[in-house]
Design goal:
The structure is a homodimer of 248-residue chains. Helices cover 25% and strands 33% of the residues of chain A. In chain A, α1 packs across α3 and α2 packs across α3. The N and C termini of chain A lie far apart (50 Å). Chain A is built from six helices and ten strands, in the order αααββββαββαβαβββ. The first copy, chain A, has a six-stranded antiparallel beta sheet, with helices on both faces. In chain A, strands 1-2 form a two-stranded antiparallel sheet. Chain A is of the alpha+beta class. Chain A is elongated and about 65 Å long. At the A-B interface, β7, β8 and β10 of A face β7, β8 and β10 of B. The first copy, chain A, binds a DNA duplex (19 and 19 nucleotides) through α3. Chains A, B: It holds the Pfam family GntR.
DNA sequence: CAGTGGTCTAGACCACTTC
DNA sequence: AAGTGGTCTAGACCACTGC
């Protein structure tokens, strides 16, 4: 009766390590503070560096740590609440601390999955506008906005065919459409090389992929695929009633 | 002039491996098919098993593969589109292929973050209803619903204090409230041990954490924290206009 | 340049599922 | 008992940052 089933299911070392580190972060470290390097931490806990890294990886995934090659591991600030889909009525570049930066626009054939949403034939090129979402000077998200030519009929063919000016022209035309609704999905992905670069992360970094389908007159006017840094972002979706407590 | 800068930025082996495997999955494997085991794959590609595993991990994160200890690695079906927040008006257990299963309810002190949202004092116990969301017989999500006593005043104190019957009683009372709105956030997390068990995954598995705050009469009526399997789920958010193409 | 995190190896053993 | 994926080790070298 006295046998209390101690450690009959021993948890993995890296899991226990993660708990210990997590508690230490709460009590002994301030946001921004740098941790001892991996080799020292591993030695201090008496584990191999790979095991220690497994624990750090989890904590980074949860947004508790930030690791940068050549620099070190620092305590991350709490995740930012990022409102998706509340940037006023469409595609305006807002200003201030949280804003979209329009990069450029090119003609391109969208990936098959996007073409399906756009209801265009698989090889039809469309306008592809690249934007970056910044907050307090740091990149939050990289977005590719796919716009079929039919959605922006007013676009003069003579204008410059690519680059930032073209991108703004596409957005300007898009803003004239009346939206009937939006449809969104969120899933986990890993950053492609180009997105990773914009997000200041390594390729393969975990991202939240937000796919938005904009509907007008029963058609799909445009499709946006935005990849948000999963380590730093908490996506918030309001439905208009009341202040956004969650966005805190 | 002829020097075309080949491989001046060599990509990591596991990254290249991932690409190769991903292509192979598209062209040579069917959904549900089992791959050769890790030791053999590693040998076949001439890399260490750890390196191969790094590639497999990424593919699993992207929902391309499913790995089960003692069984093997299989090709995963495309992610399910899961509608969050469309289960008809509140907390009804829907039936059919996609449904919530109410597990139980206990009195418990919510985590600090939840207490803050509920606007209750940190140590106030509340009703905690546990539910599981199933689709086609497989677990999609595990949810903890926190309901302050004030939100369900009609709850008779004499009823059984915990268990499934109590859980249903709480939900029944909750359904009488008129909701003014909902506020949602989505972020990446890793499964706690208890959630992992319900989701049929190992602890630490990547999950999408959906936090919902239900508002009524300016107050927070309840807070739900649902953890969805990130490997199998794509969360969809409609806003009511038109069919859900993304839910595919 | 020194110091950091990122990649990679070649092994070992463990936990779990299946037969 | 055999076979799978999961954990862990002790090393090595690479890529990047900052002084």
């Amino acid at each position: 009766m006295g046998t209390t089933q101690l450690e009959s299911v021993p948890e993995p070392k890296y899991w226990h390590l993660k708990t210990v580190l997590s508690d230490a972060l709460d009590s002994e470290f301030a946001v921004g503070e740098v941790l001892p390097n991996e080799r020292e931490l591993a030695a201090r806990f008496g584990v191999a560096r790979a095991t220690l890294r497994q624990a750090l990886e989890q904590l980074e995934l949860e947004g508790r740590l930030q690791r940068r090659r050549g620099v070190g591991t620092t305590v991350a600030p709490p995740r930012v609440g990022v409102a998706v889909g509340d940037y006023a009525h469409g595609w305006a570049d807002t200003s201030g601390e949280d804003s979209w930066r329009t990069v450029d626009s090119v003609e391109a054939v969208p990936p098959a999955a996007v073409a399906r949403l756009l209801e265009t034939a698989p090889d039809t090129p469309v306008h592809r506008v690249r934007r970056t979402r910044m907050s307090h000077g740091r990149p939050l998200a990289a977005e590719l906005l796919y716009v079929p030519a039919e959605s922006v009929p007013g676009l003069a063919a003579i204008e410059t065919p690519s680059g930032p000016a073209r991108a703004r022209a596409v957005l300007r035309e898009l803003r004239r459409l009346e939206l009937e609704g939006r449809e969104r999905s969120v899933e986990l992905g890993s950053a492609r090389a180009d997105d990773a670069k914009e997000l200041d992360r390594l390729p393969g970094a975990p991202v939240l992929v937000v796919t938005t389908r904009y509907v007008t007159e029963g058609r799909t006017a445009a499709v946006a695929v935005a990849t948000y840094r999963a380590d730093t972002c908490r996506l918030t979706f309001g439905d208009g009633a009341g202040e956004e407590l969650l966005a805190g």
